[in-house]
């Protein structure tokens, strides 16, 4: 890996594809440099973990409901047996309110199923300002590829 990485190739590939799968060395550092370069280029970055994402479109773009975990100490007689539904704002709602490009950086993307990856690719196709980087695991050297190549046809 070069000492000073401009990130220009990564950014052009991201703008061309819309969604990239990123494989980073386990010692870290390269992804932070890329993220910093993208922020300097005008992207509003939103980092989140892929664990617990559920339905990507509902979680990221729509008002959705969640249920708190039942810890066994609460009375379930006043609501459903699984708890009360709480309404949660979409994660990318405020970020997409502006005019500039929005970057969603997903950590631990190796836990996503192929249908979730396909839904994320479709979301990037429908919303052209949204760009997506999914960290898919470790590698000996920094490399990336279009996320669509990981989704079986």
TrEMBL record:
Identify the InterPro entries for this entry: NAD(P)H-quinone_OxRdtase_su_N
Q: Tell me the compartments it is located in.
A: Cellular thylakoid membrane
Q: What is its EC number?
A: 7.1.1.-
Give the UniProt family note: Belongs to the complex I NdhN subunit family.
Q: What does this protein do?
A: NDH-1 shuttles electrons from an unknown electron donor, via FMN and iron-sulfur (Fe-S) centers, to quinones in the respiratory and/or the photosynthetic chain. The immediate electron acceptor for the enzyme in this species is believed to be plastoquinone. Couples the redox reaction to proton translocation, and thus conserves the redox energy in a proton gradient. Cyanobacterial NDH-1 also plays a role in inorganic carbon-concentration.
The record describes its quaternary structure and partners as: NDH-1 can be composed of about 15 different subunits; different subcomplexes with different compositions have been identified which probably have different functions.
> Know the name of this protein?
NAD(P)H-quinone oxidoreductase subunit N
- Organism in which the protein naturally occurs: Cyanobium gracile UHCC 0139
Q: What is the lineage of its organism?
A: Bacteria, Bacillati, Cyanobacteriota, Cyanophyceae, Synechococcales
């Amino acid at each position: 890996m070069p000492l000073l990485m401009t990130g220009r190739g990564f950014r052009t590939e991201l703008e061309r594809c819309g969604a990239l799968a990123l494989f980073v060395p386990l010692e870290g550092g390269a992804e932070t440099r890329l993220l910093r370069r993208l922020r300097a280029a005008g992207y509003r970055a939103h980092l989140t973990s892929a664990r617990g994402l559920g339905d990507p479109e509902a979680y990221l773009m729509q008002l959705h409901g969640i249920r708190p975990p039942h810890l066994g100490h609460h009375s379930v007689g006043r609501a459903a047996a699984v708890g009360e539904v709480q309404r949660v704002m979409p994660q990318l709602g405020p970020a997409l309110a502006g005019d500039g490009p929005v970057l969603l950086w997903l950590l631990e993307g190796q836990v996503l199923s192929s249908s979730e990856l396909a839904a994320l690719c479709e979301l990037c196709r429908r919303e052209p300002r949204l760009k997506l980087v999914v960290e898919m695991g470790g590698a000996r050297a920094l490399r990336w590829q279009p996320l669509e190549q990981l989704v079986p046809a």
